[in-house]
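Consider the tokenized backbone below.
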């Protein structure tokens, strides 16, 4: 067996389609064919770019563009420093309801874990104090947590919490329990405000979510009230190629 044939056996089944069109589209078709046939199953690690270059006889630029586009379309998942994998179906999080992300992930049959990046008391900026509707500036609790699904980061959660309503927030172990569960126990939720936008991942967000800087993300700004007081001001960032937001409900007549 030739070196090229041996490389082809290790990198996938079949060859580039014999059709008109750009080479990178043929590489995309080759990858999708291996996924569709089951040769590369869910979470399968793809051959490296160098291996695909050698086995398919195309340039690295061609392979790189094909993998980049398949990643942006949600077919592949690229983890910096680790490799490229066949992506799971996009997880969907409820848009209207307030849910525990750990429960959502476990209901899909996946494994949830969280990593606490920041947990502190802090003085809010003037804009943040205004979001809390404070008449005077006073300390709030602050947390930054990354939620993982089967080891892959899917949500960056940043919360600011009204310390008068939840005085012991910054002393909790949020790798053992979720902020959602703790806040539900501490203060009743009476009103919610959602604002959703699309953003490009900055360097810090990209590092925490293990994506490329500039990757499209979903940003959910959420405020919650307990009675007349703002309880939390939250910023939830989802990697756009790993997560979607949606809901189904019956409008009132």
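A designed sequence for it:
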């Amino acid at each position: 067996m030739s070196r090229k044939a041996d490389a082809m056996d290790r990198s996938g089944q079949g060859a580039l389609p014999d059709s008109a069109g750009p080479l990178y589209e043929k590489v995309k078709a080759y990858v999708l064919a291996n996924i569709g046939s089951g040769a590369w199953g869910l979470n399968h690690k793809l051959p490296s770019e160098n291996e695909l270059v050698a086995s398919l006889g195309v340039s690295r630029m061609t392979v790189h563009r094909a993998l980049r586009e398949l990643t942006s379309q949600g077919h592949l998942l690229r983890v910096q420093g680790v490799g490229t994998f066949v992506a799971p179906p996009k997880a969907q999080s409820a848009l209207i309801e307030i849910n525990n992300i750990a429960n959502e992930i476990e209901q899909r049959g996946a494994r949830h874990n969280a990593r606490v990046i920041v947990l502190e008391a802090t003085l809010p900026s003037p804009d943040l104090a205004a979001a809390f509707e404070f008449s005077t500036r006073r300390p709030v609790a602050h947390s930054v947590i990354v939620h993982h699904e089967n080891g892959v980061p899917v949500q960056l959660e940043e919360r600011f919490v009204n310390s008068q309503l939840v005085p012991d927030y910054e002393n909790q172990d949020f790798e053992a329990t979720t902020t959602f569960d703790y806040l539900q126990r501490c203060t009743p939720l009476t009103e919610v405000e959602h604002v959703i936008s699309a953003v490009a991942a900055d360097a810090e967000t990209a590092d925490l979510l293990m994506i490329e800087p500039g990757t499209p993300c979903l940003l959910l700004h959420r405020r919650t009230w307990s009675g007349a007081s703002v309880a939390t001001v939250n910023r939830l960032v989802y990697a756009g190629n790993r997560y979607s937001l949606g809901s189904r409900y019956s409008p009132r007549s």
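Residues 1-10, 247-253 have pLDDT under 50 and may be disordered.
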